[in-house]
Amino acid sequence: MTSSMTPGIAANRLGQDELANNFADLHMPLQPHEVKVAADRCYFCHDAPCVTACPTDIDIPLFIRQISTGTPEAAAKTIFDMNILGGMCARVCPTEELCEQVCVREVAEGKPVEIGRLQRHATDTLMAQDAHPYKRAASTGKKIAIVGAGPAGLSCGHRLAMLGNEVMIYDANPKAGGLNEYGIAAYKSTNDFAQSEVDWLKSIGGITIENGQGLGRDIHLDQLASDFDAIFLSVGLSGVNALAIDGSEKDGVQDAVKFINDLRQSNDLATIPIGRNVVVIGGGMTAVDAAVQSKLLGAEQVTIAYRRGRDAMSASRYEQDLAASHGVKLLFNAQPNAVLGNGAATAVEFEYTAQNAGKLSGTGEMIQIAADQVFSAIGQTLNADVDLKLEGRKIAITGAGRTSRAGVWAGGDCASGGNDLTVTAVAEGRDAAMDIHETLMGAA
User: Fold this and answer.
1) Domain endpoint, select from 354, 376, 398
2) In a 3-state reduction of DSSP, which class is residue 112?
């Protein structure tokens, strides 16, 4: 367990000005003249590959054309029609692997249209206005319970409310937002944007959020089924896989999810203790976010160690390069063997790995990396007793989120079939909302 008293781990490594600069917006908003230049680069392709690559099927050429004609509010409406969390997705979506990767400009010139930043320009413009862009339909008299106020739950709730349903969202955390509030790097979502987006989304009406309500602890599936016409589960993956190696209980060892959570909720980044030598174990986005933010807090040496090769990392190449640009060392084909130290971590011992006939195995060659702070980012798992059919470690679903229990839908990271992206969760919540509504109205 990490402690500010652990040797090598300390707060106040950097001053307030340097911290403010380090944690400034990763991608600053486009200036007015930049908006026009960026929009003019779009070819407005017919059957545009960028639309196909977007999990929420936003009509990207249309919204960019609307921006180019000076109507960013109309562009935002085009975005929000498909993705009500388009503002956050413009900030955190891996556009470099989705829409921008297949942009014709990228293929031909190696420089795509800046779709993500243009999306942010449009959505920020409309969200800054007082009026919500959608009105609720006449009341259906139906009540739906949503468990989990993350991207999938919020997307589902907004669409259901817009269709005239009453929505109650329960969330175990003190704040709504889920991953957007607690689980992404602070430099990707600045100025409390996650909470501003929740407030904006709720302004359509018909949505109530109750925090501090955990499934299986404060609320129960059977009771919800009795009280509501339908249930949508979007509880995420709050369980953390244990680092099952010798020494994992030593001071200075912590899961990366909690570190990111604590950082996101801190009112003073200088108070967050950080080591001089930090090792992050894992190969996903959580590992990258923990490593980069360790550097930004003042760690001197930060290493991401992953047991497989670079191409197997679930973090995108863009994110890997971002980490490297901040001075993070990436170590591949190294699996953790033990955390060393007398009571507190001083180093991590790794064994180099190799692929033999498609199977990962140790080579017997060891390496030690100095570490007074170790973050484990080796995956998350479902942490809710839902009494539903599972597929692997997630809730099994068919169609638009239907679970093995009638009247219960699921989406987002807790459900099978997704890729654990905010934008995918939004799409799943939206599609489940339509299926729930049609089912309750007798059309399905």
Assistant:
1) 376
2) coil
User: Which tens digits make up the pLDDT trace of 367-402?
Assistant: 999 999 999 999 999 988 889 999 988 999 999 999
Does 272 lie in the same domain as 355? yes
Strand partners, 339: 348
Backbone angles phi, psi at 359, to 5 degrees: -110, 135
pLDDT digits (tens, 9 = 90+) for 360-375: 999 999 999 999 999 9
DSSP sequence for 389-411 = -EETTEE--BTTTB-SSTTEEE-
229 with 351, same domain: the answer is: no
**262 and 352 share one domain:** yes
Determine the Cα angle at 380 with ends 375 and 383, to 5°.
Answer: 125
Q: Residue 444: pLDDT band by 50, 70, 90 thresholds?
A: low
pLDDT tens, position by position, 175-199: 999 999 999 999 999 999 999 999 9
Same domain? For 358 and 328 the reply is yes
Q: How confident is the model at residue 4 (pLDDT cuts 50, 70, 90)?
A: very low
Chain length of the chain: 444
Residue 444 contacts residue 438 (beta carbons within 8 Å)? yes
**Which DSSP string do the residues of 120-149 spell out, in sequence order?**
HHHHHHHHTSSS-S--PPSP---EEEEE--
- Whether pTM > 0.90 for this model: the answer is yes
Q: Which domain holds residue 99?
A: 32-127
Residue after which a domain boundary falls, among 346, 376, 406: 376
- The domain total for the chain is 3
Helix, strand and coil percent figures for the chain, each rounded to 5: 35, 20, 45
CATH no. for residue 36?
1.10.1060.10
d(CA 283, CA 333): 11
Place of tokens 């929505």: 167
Cβ–Cβ < 8 Å for 313, 328: no
Residue 355 φ then ψ, to 5°: -95, 120
Higher pLDDT, 139 or 5: 139
Query: 416 and 360 in one domain?
Result: no
Residue 170 sits at φ, ψ, to 5 deg, of -105, 140
* Residues 96 and 152 both lie in one domain: no
C-alpha pair distances (Å), 198 with each of 56, 193, 195, 425: 19, 9, 5, 15
Backbone φ/ψ region at 358: left (φ over 0), alpha (ψ -120 to 50), beta: left
Does residue 7 sit within a domain?
no
